Amino acid sequence: VLDALEVSRVRGARLEHAQILSAQDVAKMRSLGVIAGIQSCHYLSDRSWAPERLGNRLAQAYRWGSLAAAGVPLLMGTDFPIEPPCPARNFLACAVREEISERLTVDQVIAAYGPPAWASLGGRNTLVACEGPFALASEAEGAYFVSAQEGAEWS
């Protein structure tokens, strides 16, 4: 896919499920201006079987920190209906990733949920609700978290 984008000279393309990437892939994504569509919640679902199925490619999986460090724009999603639509699972996955250098901070996850207008699917507002204390409303230029239990709001 990245080779085809390079030949086509398309800028700002989005690579969904950017989940298994070599260091060269990450560098090429940066140089081509490719947006990484990531679903970190897959890490929680996959980690029991991923070592066996991926083998030595496991070191190339879930490279969120590498993407962020390289300056690749991140766009976070839950992959509903494959995964539950609760964004809290993405926050958890980014916090518990065994390889510390591949974790994302809360601020990085919030930024990936509230992308700039160029990555916001036409600037439409989206609302994702989940069971539990958090719901996420994503605007084109920011993300807002609402605590359903307390009615508190912060951005």
Give your account of this protein's structure:
The longest helix has 10 residues, at 23-32. The model is unreliable at 120-155 (pLDDT under 50). 34% of the residues lie in helices and 17% in strands. A hairpin with a 5-residue loop joins β6 (142-147) and β7 (153-154). It starts with a helix and ends with a strand. It has seven helices and seven strands, in the order αβαβαααβααββββ. The protein is α/β, with parallel strands linked by helices and 155 residues long. A four-stranded antiparallel beta sheet has the order 4-5-6-7, covered by helices on one side. It has a three-stranded parallel beta sheet with strand order 1-2-3.
Write the element-wise H/E pattern from the N-terminal end onward: HEHEHHHEHHEEEE
Intertermini distance: 35 Å
Structure summary, number of beta strands: 7
H/I helix tally:
7
Regions with little confidence, pLDDT below 50 for 5+ residues? 120-155
Percentage of β-strand residues: 15-25%
Shape: globular
Q: Note the main sheet.
A: 4 strands, antiparallel
Q: What Rg, in angstroms, do the CA atoms define?
A: 16 Å
Structural class: alpha/beta
Widest β-sheet, arrangement of strands: 4-5-6-7
